[in-house]
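Technical note accompanying the year-one report. For the benefit of new consortium partners, we illustrate the data format agreed upon in the data management plan: each record pairs a sequence with a structure-token string. No post-processing was applied to the example shown here.
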Amino acid sequence: MERNGAYVNLAKWFEYLNDDCGYENWSQYLITKLKKYALSDGLDIGCGGGWFTRAFFKAGYRMTGLDASAEMLDFAQETAVKEGVRGEYLLGDVSKMKLPKRFDFATAINDCINYIPKNKLNAAFKNVAGALKKGGIFLFDISSERKFREKIANTVCADDREEITYLSFNKTENDCVAMDVTLFVKRKDGAFDRLDETHTQYIYREEEIIQALENNGFSVLEIEGHLGTDKTQSDRICFLAQRK
């Protein structure tokens, strides 16, 4: 059985399978955060299929999406065209590349940072700082340690729908979470194709993120739970930082 890297097979189904995550409220929360500052030109790191990139564009920002998955970027570009959204999409890993211009703000939403290996976090934040103008804003989130330890560790997640079944077999070892994902996708003839891929995420503690930000020229302005909730009880922690 061959397993592909993350988001090779899942790319075209990701937004569909996450239709219950509250994209509208989530994007409005983020846009409200950004509107506190005079910003116009944004970089959406780990943009995936582009849901938040499109939402920021519709809120009046010029947007560039960056992702390490070519398949995700294909979906993002196709969907942007369908919705009449303009923007540039770049293929690359933020921990390895320097961006071709500087932006007013950068975002990294929905676990993007959790996909960065621990030995590359400082390099990633250094490159984000290098992509921002002085005083630029960095708005991002991580899945909390509580979520990984108490809800995901050594579990099987499933979503069974008419045209697709999603299974994720999750194993946690120390601060590393391996997710073996299997999709059964219905064909036109009624049979199903099986597709497999592996995702690896890393558990980050708040203090690790703060230290990496401060090491790479950021001041931390706000830390709170998902949509402004109590961070100690939240599955997601949101960080707002500013480049010095």
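Partners are asked to follow this layout when depositing records. The first strand starts at residue 41 and ends at 45.
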